[in-house]
UniProtKB/TrEMBL annotation:
Pfam families: 7tm_1. The keyword Disulfide bond applies. The chain crosses the membrane at residues 51-72, 84-106, 129-148, 160-182, 214-232, 253-274, 296-318. Interacts with IL8. Interacts with GNAI2. Belongs to the G-protein coupled receptor 1 family. Residues 64-315 form the G-protein coupled receptors family 1 profile domain. This is C-X-C chemokine receptor type 2. It comes from Latimeria chalumnae. InterPro entries: CCR1-9-like, Chemokine_CXCR_1/2, GPCR_Rhodpsn, GPCR_Rhodpsn_7TM. One of its GO terms (biological process) is defense response to bacterium. GO terms for molecular function: C-C chemokine binding; C-C chemokine receptor activity; C-X-C chemokine receptor activity; granulocyte colony-stimulating factor binding.
């Protein structure tokens, strides 16, 4: 039988649409160069290192995103439409951080949390991904309208932005619901452990999962990516034609947020897309190719998981308004002297009201 224990236990199946167990051969995905004997993975994986990484990401995400929520929530008078999107992005990352301890235990041992938690945590993981990229699309459109078309009306209708965020959360949840049907807990024939993964089904079910996966590639990543590239391409072109230092500073952190998102998520999505092409037999699958793709999927997923803790670090190092707002909150609670925020206050007074965070 086919053995991919490392991929099963590391939870690489983010989309929950394929089963990386022996049953994969029942779906007709046996590589052409291994008819005589099944493929085996020669890759050894350090599960202890993954547990350490997930633990650090959990701590950093919990602390950093909590500060982001605190700063934006306490800056009601200065909150812009971009801030509302960033607030929801921080909430999405916080929700994602809460699943990491479960996934760390899963990597180290087996799935011990039951069927309901398997489905719930898998759904949360997907909701974070979809809501994250959709919120970044809204931020890119918001900045595009504000800078390219000099439109500020959206900032005067912040209640509309809140409804947009509600629609994004609902849409992200709807895109994630199929995982409830396909994900379950069962004993892996190859490892003898309980896993939270995909149960191989009939050919019709497999075809349905292929369709859903392609839809998620397009709606969940590549189409939003095209929208962001267009908006930011136009925005950069406009900024290059103006000498406004305020606009350049306001856009710096937004560009950084999008760039980090692409660095963290693009490799994983490209790997998943390539895996989909192999599993649908668009690309001829061999044992060697399968082994390489599975190994890449493991590491690119770890990179994608790290995304949830990086945005607060960007705000702290790039966002001078964020640092000022945080210092002001600390001063109000008597944690630091108010003298420490005077220099920051002088900067903020000269940069306008583009965004509390940036």
């Amino acid at each position: 039988n086919m053995v991919y224990n490392s991929l099963i236990l590391s939870g690489t199946d983010l989309f929950g649409l394929f089963n990386y167990t022996d049953d994969a051969y029942n779906l007709g995905t046996l590589p052409t160069d291994s008819i005589a004997s099944p493929c085996t993975s020669s890759y050894t994986f350090n599960y202890d290192a993954v547990v350490v990484i997930y633990s650090l990401v959990f701590i950093l995400s919990l602390a950093g995103n909590s500060l982001v929520v605190l700063v934006i929530r306490c800056s009601k008078n200065l909150r812009s439409s971009t801030d509302i999107y960033l607030l929801n992005l921080a909430i999405a990352d916080l929700l994602f951080a809460f699943i990491l301890p479960f996934w760390a235990v899963y990597n180290k041992n087996q799935w011990i949390f039951g069927e309901f938690m398997c489905k719930a945590i898998s759904v949360l993981r997907e909701v974070n991904f979809y809501s994250g990229i959709l919120l970044l699309v809204c931020i890119s459109i918001d900045r595009y309208l504000a800078i390219v078309h000099a439109t500020q009306s959206i900032n005067h209708k912040r209640h509309l932005v809140k409804y947009v965020c509600i629609v994004i959360w609902i849409f992200a949840l709807l895109l994630s619901l199929p995982i409830i049907l396909f994900r379950s807990v069962f004993n892996s024939p190859s490892s003898g452990r309980l896993i939270c993964s995909e149960n191989a089904g009939a050919e019709a079910t497999s075809s349905l999962r292929n369709v859903i996966r392609f839809l998620r590639h397009t709606l969940g990543f590549f189409f939003p990516l095209v929208v962001m590239l267009f908006c930011y391409g136009s925005t950069i072109k406009t900024l290059l034609q103006t000498r406004s230092g305020q606009k350049h500073k306001a856009m710096k952190i937004i560009f950084a947020v999008v760039l980090v998102f692409l660095i963290c998520w693009l490799p994983y999505n490209v790997s998943i897309f390539f895996d989909t092409l192999m599993r649908t037999q668009v690309i001829n699958e061999t044992c060697s190719m399968r082994d390489h793709v599975d190994n890449v999927l493991i590491w690119t997923e770890i990179l994608s998981f790290m995304h949830c803790c990086i945005n607060p670090i960007l705000y702290a190092f790039i966002g001078q308004k964020f640092r000022h707002s945080l210092l002001k909150i600390m001063a109000n609670y008597g944690l630091i002297s108010k003298d420490k925020i005077r220099k920051s206050s002088s900067y903020v007074s000269t940069t306008g009201n583009t965004s509390t965070t940036v």
